[in-house]
Design goal:
The chain has eleven helices and nine strands. It has 330 residues and is α/β, with parallel strands linked by helices. The protein has one domain: Luciferase-like domain (TIM Barrel, Alpha-Beta Barrel). Strand 5 (164-168), helix 6 and strand 6 form a beta-alpha-beta unit. It is globular and about 60 Å long. To bacterial alkanal monooxygenase alpha and beta chains.
Length: 330
């Protein structure tokens, strides 16, 4: 089976853009991805980040789905502890009604933000011992046809054709995805350290379900592609600055390469940066083909999800083009 390839978009706000411009770029990127043969286009729920505009994830999914025709659009993911399962069922049931058989529901258990913001989001429902499995099953119940006789129903949502995906960056999520027999998407684009062991756990413990007969592995990685190796490395400085900003708690929009400052980081920051960027692939077409061929051979994903921050919009679209050409050739 051919290796599928998709995109994760955080609706990244670049320096000089407002929110409206950011959303316009996401639409254009999705339309471009559709032409290039990408399978799906996901948005990830984040809050209180000055460089990320995908907080109201389901609204953005609907906006982009409405301006594409065949591309699957979904969440990578909805951070389930931030929401009631009934409201998620209703939102994604509505999306499925509007765009039948094109909506994905990726689910995560992280807050997608800092603790203070998570507390503000959840209010009196804040629970540090959140039972992710219980709430996934509750969401499945609301979206099943069998819930039609229940006193509490998700309308829209009941019977919706919206596949679930478990997102994670740890062994906990791997065990859960395996137990529930659901596809597993690993966040190697920012937390690659447990990738190998998590995939081993998922594949070894996978239990076939009504949703999936065998393991389905999706790995999100960063790909920064340029016409030359030098250009790719130049473009990648904006991406690495984002990582440094996370590590040093600096909050700002995505900077152009000429305004990045990667030369003066401390040794501790550099060490953590190297760990975060272990599955960030930078280069021209030939270099990327060599690197990604080894990656696919080592980890055997069913699907690669492409992420990566590039300041220049046209260069970012060209990076997607190169990435799609390389992955199709693997």
């Amino acid at each position: 089976m051919a290796l599928k390839y998709s995109i994760l978009d955080l609706a990244t706000i670049v320096k000089g853009d407002d929110i409206s411009k950011t959303f316009q770029k996401s639409v254009k990127s999705a339309q471009h991805a559709e032409k290039l043969g990408f399978t799906r286009y996901w948005f990830s729920e984040h809050h209180n980040f000055p460089n990320v505009a995908s907080a109201a994830t389901s609204i953005l999914i609907g906006h982009v789905a409405g301006q594409t025709t065949t591309l699957r659009v979904g969440s990578g993911g909805i951070m389930l502890p931030n929401h009631s399962t009934l409201s998620v069922a209703e939102q994604f049931g509505t999306l499925d009604g509007l765009y039948p058989s094109r909506i994905d529901l990726g689910l995560g258990r992280a807050p997608g933000t800092d603790g203070l913001t998570a507390s503000a989001l959840r209010g009196n429902n804040f629970n540090p011992n959140y039972n992710f499995e219980f709430h996934i099953k509750e969401l499945q119940k609301y979206m099943s046809k069998e819930n039609s006789e229940a006193k509490v129903r998700a309308i829209p949502g009941e019977g919706a054709d919206v596949p679930f995906y478990i997102l994670g960056s740890s062994t906990d999520s791997a065990f859960l995805a395996a137990k529930l027999g659901l596809p597993y998407a690993f966040a190697a684009h920012f937390a690659p350290s447990q990738l190998e062991v998590a995939l081993e756990i998922y594949r070894e413990h996978f239990q076939p379900s009504e949703f999936l007969d065998e393991p389905y592995v999706m790995i999100c990685i960063n790909i920064i592609a340029g016409e030359t190796v030098d250009e790719a490395h130049y473009l990648s400085t904006s991406h690495f600055q984002v990582f440094v900003n996370i590590l040093t708690d600096q909050r700002q929009p995505l900077l152009p390469p000429d305004e990045t400052d990667l030369a003066n980081m401390g040794d501790d920051v550099a060490l953590h940066l190297n760990r975060m960027a272990a599955k960030t692939f930078v280069g021209d077409k030939a270099t990327l083909k060599e690197k990604l061929s080894k990656f696919v051979k080592d980890y055997k994903p069913n699907e690669i999800i492409v992420s990566g921050n590039i300041y220049d919009f046209d260069k970012k679209q060209r990076s997607y083009e190169i990435a799609s050409e390389v992955i199709k050739s693997l």
